[in-house]
From TrEMBL:
Alphabetical list of Gene3D superfamilies matching this protein: MFS general substrate transporter like domains
Record GO cellular component, one term: basolateral plasma membrane
Originating organism: Strongylocentrotus purpuratus
GO terms under biological process: transmembrane transport
Protein name: Proton-coupled folate transporter
Amino acid sequence: MPRARRTSFTSSLDVNSFSTDVYTLEKTGREVARGRWITVEPLLILSNMASAGLLVTRLQYLRARIAHDKFNQTSDYGANESSECDAAIQNSSSIQLQQAIQVELSLYSLILNALSTFPAIFSTILLGSLSDRIGRRIGLVVPIIGLVIQCALYVTIFYAHLPIWVCFVADTLQGLAGGYGLLLSTASAYIADVTSVEQRTWRLVIAEAALVLGSGVIQPINGFIIQYCGIGVAFCTSLGVALPGLLYAVCPLTTPETVEEDTEETLGEYIKDIFRGIYRLLSINVNGRRWKIAFLFIAELFLNTVINGLQIVPTYGLGPPFCWGPSIVGYFTAAVAILPVIGVTVAVKLFGICMDDLWMIFCGTLAMAASCVATGVAPSTPYLFIALVPYSIGCLISPVMKGVLSKLVDEHEQGSVFALAGCMVNISQFVGPVLANALYASTVSFFSPLAFYVLAGLLIFPTILNGIVQSYGTETHLGYTQIPGDDDG
């Protein structure tokens, strides 16, 4: 009897069965990532440290270059801007000069934001949806490469004294690489791959908290570097932080792939699948999801437009009557990053006890409107910092909205829904600063807070759309089960 059992075993030990057994013992990248509490969060921290530091440094560098090149004002790139602004308050002609510099600065910021965000709209849709077919890593690596190139170009612009138009090239290349929208949408899809429905909203909140935490870590350091070491060193710091982020995204040990590539499809079939997947996402109406998805996308566009429009606050603070220097700019942008980490995590935990996701979005919208109004009426710098308290609660809108959208679609549509959500982010990154900068540039001479009141008014629209979705509810309509043979319809 033992002999017969031994014979049976050896006869079945052929190459095919052995390789199959070994394969089943190996964990897939998704299973490896699912067992980790930390996945893409370090990548988000490093990338936003580099990006946020670069943006603030760029703002102060451009202001100094504009003052020097167009108004013949000497500048040591940030160290004496606050004293010049304070002196301008005592002199009416100097006030007009400072206002003229602010107008030019806001227009340059408008152009740069347009060049970095408009190309990213298409890159995010293409690469974000493609990640459902060929893997998430492409959507994580490409925007980091664009960020590294952008940082390197700004280092070159500063030290080689290149013309300002080279800044336009740097931001355009970063936009073509997908930028913030592609990185966040792919990271969100990555988290959706490795979490359950119950965990998802909280993990998305943590991911976005990690994103803004990176900005909070770098800003005080960045302000210190600009004040004591110069803008060139600050640009180099952003480049030095972006490079480890690129290594983290590329390395399969730190970022295991969660989507298996379909090697049988050609590039043309990949492209067709992208548009087919987006069409299915917006056309299939199982459980009445179609109009809810559309309403939530539009609401997210308005909400993120307001959030991105508030990026003009540092520009607002650089002029009279606030007259911020580099250190105050650093402290403020650090507070903008750190307070939402605290506010969002606490608010989601507390609100989650007594309300659903849509009610959290409603409360966050009201908090963001309160922050806009408080910023507009602020008479001095301390009040601008106080306005960040409701802002920190309002920042829960974006991750909670993504959680709702993720729960409305099936597993194989996560990349497409987050790509479209990232597209809304990129559009808002274009529209928000353009609208806010245009309003500020046209009203700075007679009523500069008007931009913040307009942003508060825009929040009426997402409040209405969220209320309509809320009246029907999503509790019994989370996702759908795909019907066999439904691939083409």
